[in-house]
Amino acid sequence: MQLQSAAIYRLSMDLISPFTTSFGTQDKRHVTIVTVTDSTGLVGYGECVSNEDPLYTEEFLDASIIAMKKYFIPIVLNADISHPNDVSDVLKSFKRNNMGKAGLEGAIWDLYAKQLGKPLHEVLGGKKSYVEVGVSLGLEDTDEAVVARVSEKVLEGYKRIKVKVKPGRDVALIRKIREVHPDVPLMADANSAYTLDDLDVLRQLDEFNLMMIEQPLGHDDMLDHAALQKEIRTPVCLDESIDSFKAAKDAIALDACKIINLKIARVGGITESLRIHELAEANGIPMWCGGMLEAGVGRMHNIAITTLSNFTLPGDTASSDRYWHKDIIVPPVVARDGVVTVSDEPGIGAEIDWATLREYLVEEIVIEKGTAPDMIFSE
């Protein structure tokens, strides 16, 4: 692929409105864009979606940037990369740091598609010309405010509404939503806020005909999720628990879930995502693509993978203006009546708006081919 250089752009972007989950509240997002340039000057775009704090996973933004700068980027630039699949093999000695790996690999997938002159979704094997999208709503100060936000998004045509829940903000909240919207496709996302001690509460959610409850228990509680699914009718969807092909394989073998929320970054990139997609499809486990408050680059990668056949449920990729005053790509992501049209332009199908990116810029790091990784151990 003739890789010549890479760059990391750390940005600070204010959210249009605060986003509250069981982890806490965010009013801004530190977005990290990764670019890779080949010998002809063609540029691929990726996004590292690590949070600033190690709350969602053990990985956090400063660590991701260090890993990319000191290890991943120098090693990949100096390797013989002929296909994006090679990246995971080259970096397999490095443990975890999946979001950093995915940010770099995503840029290389975009570049590869551009080198072929094809849209990324076509290169991945996607067949859809459009994808259905849902919206994820954080907790508000009152249940009534959440209901009002749900009503707003229903009118905008989103195909599925996801609301965050946590102990004390669950059954009553969902009941109030159902009183106003008895038939809207609705799901609850717990972000690991419960344990099996909360079984009575989780059983009560069965009465509301939810599409699923997402990650009700801890990220490493695979056996407990299997036990929970036997006790409730609501389908369990695993999110944080699915961080690799092996985790997906274990979850399916244990009957720990009926649905998988795949996040490209959490599993380490598109290459691993494709393996999980094939596994889930072979076992009749439907999937959807979750979001991490991405800026436009990450959203375009999510749209591309959602065109694959087993992504049968609406994902989290709402319009750019749902979250950002001004996104960093042109054109921005636009959902109309709950549908995003898939671009047929090469790569992810959008370009970075560099003037806007530089308005948000906090730090820029450039790494050239030939830069040695900062390794203590050598082979």
TrEMBL record:
Gene3D superfamilies: Enolase-like C-terminal domain, Enolase-like, N-terminal domain. GO terms for biological process: menaquinone biosynthetic process. Signal peptide: none annotated. InterPro entries: Enolase-like_C_sf, Enolase-like_N, Enolase_C-like, Mandelate_racemase_C, Mandelate_racemase_N_dom, OSBS/NAAAR. Residues 143-235 form the Mandelate racemase/muconate lactonizing enzyme C-terminal domain. The keyword Lyase applies. Keywords: Lyase, Magnesium, Metal-binding. It is an enzyme of class 4 (lyase). Its cofactor is a divalent metal cation. SUPFAM superfamilies: Enolase C-terminal domain-like (SSF51604), Enolase N-terminal domain-like (SSF54826). Its EC number is 4.2.1.113. One of its GO terms (molecular function) is O-succinylbenzoate synthase activity. This is o-succinylbenzoate synthase. It comes from Aliicoccus persicus.
